[in-house]
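quick one before i forget lol
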Amino acid sequence: MAAIISTINVNGVRAATGKTGKGMLEWLQVTEADIICLQETRATDEQTRAALASALDAGWFLAHAEPGAKGRAGVAILSRREPSAVRIGLGLEVDGNWVPSAEFAETGRYLEADFDDFTVASVYVHTGEADTPMQDQKYRFLDEVGARMTQQTRDFVICGDWNIGHTELDIKNWKGNIKNAGFLPQERAWIDSMIAAGYVDVVRELHPGVPGPYSWWSYRGRAYDTDAGWRIDYHLARGDIAGRAKQAVVERAETYALRWSDHAPVTVQYR
């Protein structure tokens, strides 16, 4: 099955849909995506459905993992066709049964949905902070995500905000971030391990050897105008679908004023 899959950290679904003129709802009206992975909805399921009401009325289906803490995290998958199965929260399949994660089943950071012959996941990895318990939690989360990724037997695309710049090409100011969360050696090595396990960084594969294309820019200063960004929103794919990716674009708004999130949608067309 051909599919266009997009991923976007909306930085609060109510804020993103509340912007008029060129906000998230207007984008949903024109996007060609079949499946959209959302991160940081920062809203309950009821609030998220209310914010996206016009899109749901237009035929989109919503699967949503509510935040575990009020106003933080929350991931979702919007799709033009209803998925055949949805799994909310991290976990593993053990002897044919789903066993939820003891720590991350209800944090609103992970969601899977099955579509025909492939599975899509939306993931939100928090920023972390070097040498703090938050960074230790980030590593534990990545370990559990990695365990689920390596367990997958179906064609699989996991999309989201990973809050990790993999290489020097993925951060404009990489020299100034060597000791900061998001560019730490252990974080970057985790992406290496997933690639070694057979996953493809689809956007990098289609844009080899070039800076970016960046998908996040700070709201501070002139980062957007000077394209001083980070590439931290990835499609990692394994199986036949990984080789079917033929085009990847970052849907960067024309101007700072037209942004509806500090991230931009990263959209990949799979044959």
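fyi The CA atoms of residues 62 and 177 lie 36 Å apart.
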